[in-house]
Amino acid sequence: MTAMHAAPTPSSPTLRFIRRGEIVSLVNVAPSRTLLQVLREDLGCTGTKEGCAEGDCGACTVVVGEAEGGRIRLRAVNSCIKLAHSLNGLALWTVEDLAAKDGTLHPAQQAMVDCHGSQCGFCTPGFVMSLFALYQAPTLPTASGSLPLAGALRLRPGEAGSAAPTGESGALRPSAKRNPITRAMAQEALSGNLCRCTGYQPILKAAQAMAALPPVAIDETRSLQKMDLLTPVFADFQPDSAYKLPRTLAQLLALRAADTEAQLVAGCTDVGLWVTKQQREFERVIDLSRVAELRRIEEHPQHVAFGAAVTLADAYAALVRDRPQLQAFAARFAGLPVRNAGTLGGNVANGSPIGDSMPQLIALRASLVLMSLRGHRELAIEDFYTGYRQTLLAADEVLAWIRVPKADPQASDPGLQIYKISKRFDDDSSAVCLAIDVQLDDGRVGRVSIGVGGVAATPVRARQTEAALLGQPWTEATLRHAITALRAEFTPLSDMRASSAYRREVLGNLLQRYWLESEGMQQINLQSFSLPDSV
To answer: Residue 489 is part of which domain span?
Structure first.
């Protein structure tokens, strides 16, 4: 077995990224510093605000661009919980970067002015950046599978919408006419932004209005050229750096074996809270978000394999393609900036009992592949957790893959459904999450899997309730027996999100809702309600 030890404390590396078409270099940036801290304290970019410091309010939203196959992909992310060094080699846009040299506002800004979308103004920069990301790509699939993805631009240089260099500032210039933006698109794009003055209506109107303004695109060519200049700098994984960005799985496993006490991060949507809320500092960080193998989604005959570094947005888009009924749940998994940054592997490895991915993956009978220099092993996801935020992951191991069985085209109803109960509909943690998959065989339950979150120290599988259903006729009497079993199977804690009694009651109610929907009742589901664009 490879020897495990803590590496000596290395020096802080240089941070390099692209902004306004130029390379920005900052020396001695500590591994635990957030992007928001660097923007406000080092670069004087005070337009980006700190509101909640936990990725909930969106006041700190910025847009990050990454080269993918000769294109730039833009994502709106929360800078308050994003470690600054995760930006190495990427491009960045803040609210100060949108207006042209002559002061002409970007359509995302001008529409907010025209529609009176700003009230107190504190949250406005974050809204503008989310709108900017939406404006750049209003026709692509979203994390929920059908709406446009706010924050994903995929244009090749020279294609419609691409812009040639416009000068040293990397300014914006006109592109092809944009497609209309619907209210649903706007709501999806702004799901991670909260207005403190309840000004959502004019902001949603601004989102729809900006598509009709004179078109503008980013100077993609210049940004790509600068990224190419930085690529050789980060080609090596820099083993002596305090913040390591390995590019291959082999590099990652070697680094982990050599330093088992370094903090692993990916999207940092949870570890970032340790920095901002608990004031924790990390002397050494291993960031697996650039590991090429772990960024892949692989289609196999019987399953889909998700690399641990695949973003939640991309992972849920793939899950929705295979199971369209997951669309509404996918859109409720935090706000879009969190889904753009967070990873499926990070959500699973973090092991929070209120993490939304795990109940779903348990119901889907997913398995995990853990890897180290010693080899690999695979286990069911429900067997991975041993206690509150404790797992079977060895000190030198990393979570590499999540394997999810594909939907069976011959599967019978009622099938898979996932329910999330939270105080706020958008961008909030679950009080209870229940994922149920039931398949019938001649009117009886032939197969059942139930994943539950928010009711124990870990995400759990409701095995007693499954046993109460398996082989039984699909009748109201069977369901009532299963409801009793489900409420008795767990003893949830009472906390700020819900009391123990409330959680138990809701568990049974959700199982009853599943039954009612299987019998054709749809008006109890918010998915059946939508606001028209004109409202």
So the answer is: 414-528
Q: Of 405, 431, 452, which residue sits at a domain end?
A: 405
CA 403 to CA 380: how far, in whole Å? 9
- Domain membership of residue 500 (yes or no) is yes
Specify the residue for token string 């069976």.
408
Helix (H), strand (E), coil (C) string for 149-203: CCCCCCCCCCCCCCCCCCCCCCCCECCCCCCCCCHHHHHHHCCCCCCCCCCHHHH
Q: Assess contact for 363 and 453: CB atoms under 8 A.
A: no
Question: Tens digit of pLDDT for each residue in 339-365?
Answer: 999 999 999 999 889 889 999 999 999
Q: What tokens were used for 63?
A: 């847009």
Q: CA 419, 421, 426 angle in degrees (round to 5)?
A: 100
Q: What angle do CA 15, 20, 25 make, to 5 degrees?
A: 20
Residue among 33, 103, 112, 96 nearest 63 (CA): 96
Write out pLDDT tens, residues 18-49.
999 899 999 999 999 999 999 999 999 999 99
User: How many domains does the chain divide into?
Assistant: 3
271: β partners: none
CB 454 within 8 A of CB 430: yes
**Residue 52 maps to a domain:** yes
Residue 83 has what DSSP assignment? Answer: B
Asked if 359 and 435 count as a contact pair (C-beta separation under 8 A), the reply is yes
Among 248, 242, 340, 318, smallest CA distance to 288 is for 248
In a domain, 2, yes or no: no
pLDDT band at 333 (very low <50, low <70, confident <90, very high): confident
Q: Say whether both 280 and 350 belong to one domain.
A: yes
Q: What is the DSSP string of 17-52?
A: EEETTEEEEESS--TT-BHHHIIIIIS--TTSPPSS
